[in-house]
From TrEMBL:
Record's keyword terms, sorted: Metal-binding, Thiamine pyrophosphate, Transferase
Chloroplast in keyword set: no
Organism superkingdom: Bacteria
Residue span, Transketolase N-terminal domain: 7-264
Reported cofactor(s): thiamine diphosphate
CDD domains in alphabetical order: TPP_TK (cd02012)
The species this protein was found in: Ruminiclostridium herbifermentans
Molecular-function GO terms, alphabetical: metal ion binding; transferase activity
Protein name stated in the entry: Transketolase
Keyword Oxidoreductase included in the entry's annotation: no
Length: 278
C-alpha cells in the first residue's frame, strides 16, 4: 500500500475510532487517534499477518501495551478484514466481543489480552525471546504510551530485552506528551526517553508518528538493526484528526456527545474527500 492509500486508510480508521467510542458512550479516543497512523503502517505495510488465518504460526506479533486505546486497534483490525467494520458500533456493549480492552480469546487478530499498564512490554519481550529460542523468523511489535513509561515494569522488560539482544523486538512509544492528568512532563516526567532506552542497550530511532515517510524510514531502520532491540520514539498529536480533541488531555478517556460526534465525522469526511482529490 502506497503513502496516499495509507493516508486514506488511516482516515477510515479514525472514523471507526470516533464511531466506536461514540456508540459506547465511553472509551479512549485521544490516544487511539494519535496512534492511528502507527496502527495503519503496522497492519497495512509492516507486519506479516493474514486476516484469513489470524493464528498462522509465522505471523508477526503485536502487543498493545497501552490496552485502553483498544478502539484504535479494533478499527484497524476491522478495516484490515479480521472482523466486520459494523461491529465497531458494539464496543463496550453487554455481550459484545469488543471489550474495553483487547481480549485474545474472543477477538480475531489480538495476540495478547492487555490493559494493565506496564505489563504488555514484558509479554512482547517473552514472545521475542521465544522466537529466538525456537529459531523462528517472526518479529514482535509493542506499542506503549509515553505516560506508561512511568511504570517500573517497562524498565525491567527493557533491561532484559537489551541484555538478551532481542533484535526481533520493536518497541513503539506513542509520544503525544499527554496522559489522563495532563502533560507527562508535569505529572512524572520520563524524559529524556531516548537516553533511558539507550542505557538499556536499545537502538533508538526518532520518528514523526503522523507522517508515513518518517514511519517507513523508522521501521526500515529497526528491521536492519542487528544485535539489539529497537525503540521508535514516535512524536504524535493526541486526538490527531479531530480539531477539538487535538492536544487536549481531557479527551484521553471520554466519548463525544451527539453534537461533537457530528462535528468530528464531518471533519474526517472532509479530510477523506481531500485525500481522494490528490
Amino acid at each position: 500500500m502506497e503513502k496516499l492509500e495509507l493516508q486514506k486508510m488511516a482516515n477510515e480508521i479514525r472514523k471507526g475510532i470516533v464511531t466506536a467510542v461514540y456508540n459506547a458512550k465511553s472509551g479512549h479516543p485521544g490516544g487511539s487517534l494519535s496512534a492511528a497512523d502507527i496502527f495503519t503502517y503496522l497492519y497495512f505495510k509492516e507486519m506479516n499477518i493474514d486476516p484469513k488465518n489470524p493464528k498462522k504460526e509465522d505471523r508477526d506479533r503485536f502487543v498493545l501495551s497501552k490496552g485502553h486505546v483498544a478502539p484504535g486497534l479494533y478499527s484497524t483490525l476491522a478495516n484490515r478484514g479480521f472482523f466486520p467494520v459494523e461491529d465497531l458500533k458494539t464496543l463496550r456493549h453487554v455481550g459484545s466481543y469488543l471489550q474495553g480492552h483487547p481480549d485474545m480469546k474472543h477477538i480475531p487478530g489480538v495476540d495478547m489480552s492487555s490493559g494493565s499498564l506496564g505489563q504488555g512490554l514484558s509479554v512482547a519481550v517473552g514472545m521475542a525471546l521465544s522466537a529466538k529460542m525456537d529459531n523462528k523468523s517472526y518479529r514482535v511489535y509493542a506499542l506503549t504510551g509515553d505516560g506508561e513509561l512511568q511504570e517500573g515494569q517497562i524498565w525491567e522488560a527493557a533491561m532484559f530485552a537489551g541484555h538478551r539482544k532481542l533484535d526481533n523486538l520493536v518497541v513503539i512509544v506513542d509520544n503525544n506528551n499527554l496522559q489522563i492528568d495532563g502533560c507527562i512532563s508535569d505529572v512524572c516526567s520520563p524524559y529524556p526517553i531516548d537516553k533511558k532506552f539507550e542505557a538499556f542497550n536499545f537502538h533508538v530511532i526518532n520518528a514523526d508518528a503522523n507522517d508515513f515517510d518518517s514511519l517507513e524510514a523508522a521501521f526500515k531502520e529497526a528491521r536492519e538493526t542487528k544485535g539489539m532491540p529497537s525503540v521508535i520514539i514516535a512524536k504524535s498529536i493526541k486526538g490527531k484528526g479531530v480539531s477539538f480533541m487535538q492536544n487536549k488531555a481531557s479527551w484521553h478517556g471520554k466519548a463525544p456527545n451527539d453534537e461533537e460526534y457530528e462535528i468530528a465525522m464531518k471533519e474526517l469526511e472532509k479530510a477523506g474527500e481531500e485525500l481522494c482529490q490528490k
